[in-house]
Amino acid sequence: MVRIGNSWDEILADEFRGENYLKIREFLKDEYSHHVCYPSMYDIFNALKYTDYYDVKAVILGQDPYHEEGQAHGLSFSVKKGVEIPPSLQNIYKELQSDLGIPPAKHGCLENWARQGVLLLNSVLTVRAHLANSHKNCGWQQFTDDIIKKLNERDTPIVFILWGANARSKKQYITNPIHYVIESAHPSPLSAYNGFFGSRPFSRTNEFLKSAGIEPVDWRTE
Description:
There is one protein chain. By secondary structure, this protein is of the alpha/beta class. It has helices spanning about 10, 15, 20-35, 45-50, 85-100, 110-115, 140-150, 165-170, 200-210; strands at about 35-40, 60, 120, 125-130, 160-165, 180-185. Strands 3-2-5-6 form a 4-stranded parallel sheet. A two-stranded antiparallel sheet has the order 1-4. The longest helix is centred in the first third of the chain and has 16 residues, at about 20-35. It is globular, with a radius of gyration of 17 Å.
């Protein structure tokens, strides 16, 4: 049985006992036994471990983990300190500087965001090395759909930041009118100039949180 160590354990108890997660678990046993996969099996649920269900102020939804060695550690778009900053995160930092004047960090670790209530969730939580989206059909999509549905039930407002088509596909589960959705193109170099740059997601998130009486996010990572 998975143990997150906070209120997600109770919130997701039915999901972890359900047929879909049992199927995921069997798939991962085989994948991690026979292939190099990321993140480490101990980091798969880091997004939930770092950000308790009742602490979530904002959700930044990614696609699947980085698939090269040393990058993924269970938080969407984040890499551990000392790892080269990936292109999508470089663009996120550029938009952060344009939006709020915060200079790009010298590292790519976003744990500071997660500890403040920013759920850095990927739609798919694992990947085989060097093969992007290789675990997309193992059941993770349904599992993270269920997470979004649980967050939608919250009676405290949340900002959902959806970058790119994959993330925007989950908008259908955000039906509670108290929440706020920010959507744009993905920050990857292939699409960032199609609407990500200039979308001001960070200031818009904080403006909404302040209007709801919620402490804004300090978007610095240093």
